[in-house]
Amino acid sequence: MNRTRINDRSARTRSGNPGSARGGNRSGSPRRAEGRVGRQTSPQGEFALPKTVTSALPAVEAFADLDMPAQLLGALGHEGVTVPFPIQAATLPNSLAGRDVLGRGRTGSGKTLAFGLALLARTAGRRAEPRQPLALVLVPTRELAQQVTDALTPYARSVMLRLTTVVGGMSIGRQAGALRNGAEVVVATPGRLKDLIDRGDCRLDQVAVTVLDEADQMTDMGFMPQVTELLDQVRPGGQRMLFSATLDRNVDLLVRRYLTDPVVHSVDPSAGAVTTMEHHVLHVHGADKRRTTTEIAARDGRVIMFLDTKHAVDRLTEHLLNNGVRAASLHGGKSQPQRTRTLSRFKSGHVTVLVATNVAARGIHVDNLDLVVNVDPPSDHKDYLHRGGRTARAGESGSVVTLVTPDQRRDMSRLMAAAGITPQTTQVRSGEAELSRITGAQAPSGVPVAITAPPTERPPRAASSSSRGRRGRAGRGRSTGDTARRAARRPSAVGAAA
């Protein structure tokens, strides 16, 4: 179980010359693979997956069976990761050889490591010129970018590769500086990367390995024009890999236009349920929904609660705090530092309830999270699957609970049918034993709480807030002990509410 969790969060690696093992040529302009790939039947709402023309290499049973740099194998061993997940075992022999890859797997199936190993391995040994990265990972959200970066970093260091993250909500000047200093691997959201290219701070003509992670969400979010514009700028003949939890028809354009005879591997159809995940639809009365939600939030243990809008998220968070529940909000209206701080507090347990919009539906990994609650039912089955994917990750068990009022029942039934899920449906009321049995719900303390910075966050805040301008520059030469003594004499800094 431990190995599996580490495996899923990890990502990365192998050496070689990118582009040296590719079959066929790719022109610089977009082209379609007409007449070269067959089409298979597909699940409802998905395009027919391309049929591989060139036979794929067989799957491996262990990372040690792959031709990877010794440093990467050593880093994997140090993390206790020796046995690949199915999507890794099937795709890595081919991606390490330079083949294009189309991989579909549910959240938690190990997609990040599947593309990360190949990307780092095929980039190892090369050095990027200023503003000219060699490998690119495109992701739809800041949170997913940070997760990919965190997973890749220790492995990138093992093969001496520099990695930088390019996302909105953070200093574009610092990101431009990192690119000027040279970065072999860039993990980016499409909008910010385009901004840096328009400023002249980045070029993609040396990118030999390109990955699209969660491509379907990028198309859903309206990034398709930016994604295609960026892909048209990468080096012709380079390797391209597309990984996603769902492959709807919006992604078909990307597959036909940019993947050449890809190796196709699918782990669990997008409509398939995770065997370790329970699905509950709880029928509630509208007047009792807020109380029911509060009791679930007051349970022992952490929970993510999803709502449709940031205003609804903020209102529920305030209500929970006023009722004694340690809650914090996460949505697109928060700055990136706020979002990062909130996630850190939730992962550490300093905050027990994360109230979020769909911004948290992908790209967030939290160990031992066993409950996700859809306070507002999702709008379609893809959103449901991705929200639920925050729990029951990498072999762990978990439950997804959706609160449904009478007027939402018909739409919810259709959604579940589209997702291929047969949930357990129960009529519940606040305070009832059945609600507690399913969710662990209990009465809240009713004593208002405020979320302040945990002790580990306070020292750097105290130091930065107490020294600015000329005084701050002079203070850089002080010893750690002197700084600590000065900080101890000041009033302790208290973080803002999450």
TrEMBL record:
Segments for region (Disordered): 1-47, 438-498
- Name the residue ranges of motif: Q motif: 61-89
Q: Which family does it belong to?
A: Belongs to the DEAD box helicase family.
Q: Which residues form the DEAD-box RNA helicase Q domain?
A: 61-89
Q: Which CDD domains match?
A: DEADc, SF2_C_DEAD
Could you tell me which species this protein originates from?
Answer: Streptomyces triculaminicus
Which SUPFAM superfamilies did the record assign?
P-loop containing nucleoside triphosphate hydrolases (SSF52540)
Here the segments flagged for biased composition (Basic and acidic residues) are 1-11
Q: What is this protein called?
A: DEAD/DEAH box helicase
All copies of the Helicase ATP-binding domain together span 92-265
Q: Which residues form the Helicase C-terminal domain?
A: 288-436
Q: GO CC terms for this protein?
A: cytosol
